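help with this:

***
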Amino acid sequence: GQQPPGYGQQPGYGALPPAPKSKTPLILGIGGGAVVLIIAIVLLVLKPWGAGAPTASDSPEDVANKALPLMGDLFEAAYANDPDAVQGVIDDLAPFMCESMQSEMEGTAEDLDFEAQAEDMGVTDVPPIDIEVDFSYEVTGSSEDGDTATVDYTISYNSAVPEFGDDGMSVTGWTSERVEDEADSMNFVKEDGVWKACDAS
């Protein structure tokens, strides 16, 4: 896998214990699942790309290699509960998304505001996540068919698992659980001669 510089010191958020017994683990379970899903949509679907907007000379793999490193930024912003930073990454993604996907991204920053979600459910005093995401990726293949394409890749990262107090409700800290070589793919379409992310599979 490739490890872009500066992407190794990020907090994480993710898997949870089975069978939550209170609304605290429930909200964390929903939140963790939402992060993974939204990041799959935002990063894999909307493709957060770096190194400038895509051009007509970029292949689908070129665009994916510009986009995937930005996953680290989105993970970091979402897991640090920084909706403004999330919105900043989303704004930077617009040139890489097809028209229909851009409208689907509205409200994503609010969806990733877990502190506000927890407060709405009466859950407070959740400690900050203090693990390293240690994000890396590898593009594993691609295929083109006319004006559509698919790029296959894997990602690896540390997921944060909450530790609960004796009451089964309060979160007392976090432990790290490694996700290794998780396979996924990005779908692309050509708009005005440029490959743009338009779906996730």
Observations:
- The chain has one domain: 23-200.
- The first strand starts at residue 136 and ends at 145.
- The first helix runs from residue 23 to 45.
- The two ends are 21 Å apart (CA to CA).
